[in-house]
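Task 17 of the worksheet. Students: predict the tertiary structure of the chain below and write it out as structure tokens. Keep your answer in the requested format; marks are given for formatting as well as content.
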Amino acid sequence: MERQEFDYVIVGGGGSGAVLARTLAERTTATVALLEIGPDDADRDEVLDFRRYREVPAGPLGTRIPIVPPLRGNGRFGYPISRVLGGSTSQNTCIWFRPPESDFDDWAAAGAKGWGPDAITPHFDALESRIHVETEAADLDSHRVLFDAAHEAGLQRIDFSRPFDAGIGQYRMSKSGPYRQSTSVVFLRPASALPENLAILTETAVERLLVDDGGKVSGVATNRGAIHARCEVVLCAGALETPKLLMLSGIGPADELAAFGIPVRQNLPGVGRHLLDHPAACVNFAATRALARDDVWNYAGVLFERIEKSAPWPDIEVQLGPELFEQQTRPAGYPSSAYGFTAYFTVNRARSEGRVTLASPDPRHHLSVDPAYFSDPDACDMRIMIGGVRAARRLFATAAMKGWIGAELAPGASCASDAGIEDFIRETATTGYHPAGTCRMGDPADPRSVVDPELRVIGVPGLRVADASVMPTMVSVNIAPTCMMIGHRATALIAR
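Model answer:
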């Protein structure tokens, strides 16, 4: 096989990697290779047609990473990963929120110097100049009644295209009609218009990093042979796969690596720790009538509310729609209905921290993932979840919903005490599909840090990380736009 060598090798063609690859190739004359484990998404309607978003994780392009069975909790869910160009942006629901500025104040305070609001705002602006974002219509009667109920409950109408606080608004989504604006669609199409210095290598599975005699990362070992990097390798494989690649390559907690016989190149105890997520649960009601369904997106809108009144920004996000969300309630034995309403809610700044560890030195094996939901010492996450159930009930009890709402299906009207609601949440809570934080960015002197504020892996020359894993604290909204921002800012850090 002819030697494959580039200036920069980017691992992962998803939310961060595709943005980084295209913008780095545009801004420099360096040769850039983007490596994606899955196939191209071109002409794959199940990927490109947003209406089919449920198909990708469940089909041949998807895989599911199971979780460690939790103590007193729901062990039925796993983390879906899509192996196709565009990564998570080829399977997600395209919800587009900019995080509040206070999230990035927290990043800077956590040691991510230079990642405050002033620094990252231009990158969000640049993304929105290329990505088509539209407000989803909420024009069904069953949509409008939910907004009426929220208004009756005292929530103001808000516009998500501007900075916002508590209230309810219509979805902002990175799509154009029924077609998603994934990072592949926006940054890698059409192929004929790509910079000549950018190569996209699909169906290329990275197994380990290559390290030269001087300790510098010099490339990657793949199913297609070695691919060399003259300057740097940048890992953009996400909060689960990026720490896996680091640990397989001898970069991570020394004791865990030694247990698998992996030679330690750099002892970084923070690799795989600090797993962040938005834990999710729902309240389901039967409807008293048949409900019309939208053929694209059947949720009406999103409300943000404070459960802990001292919170600096709304601490819960609630998605409302005339459609039952039953992925966790039905397997747990809760009743269903032909038609119904759901309030699906997530804790915006969950404090619990999980971890990922190797389960095998074989790169084909999944990680061991423990999200450790509701493990925060002051039980704040659970208080917010209980408050979310009660907030949903108040909304569905408004006069506006009279004649629309039937029996409460989950958790059920008999579940009234905080203890009972907690049991329901532990039994049915699932991921908000936003894993982050497993290669935490921070001060190199902090033993919890894996990358410095320049995204360089501490103590490992020639290697950076630019994806959700570097988040030092959780952002308060859906994370896809922030992942893209990280990829865009990585270009500025590398190219300067």
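Marker's comment: The mean pLDDT is 95. The chain has two domains: 4-114+179-275+436-495, 137-170+277-431.
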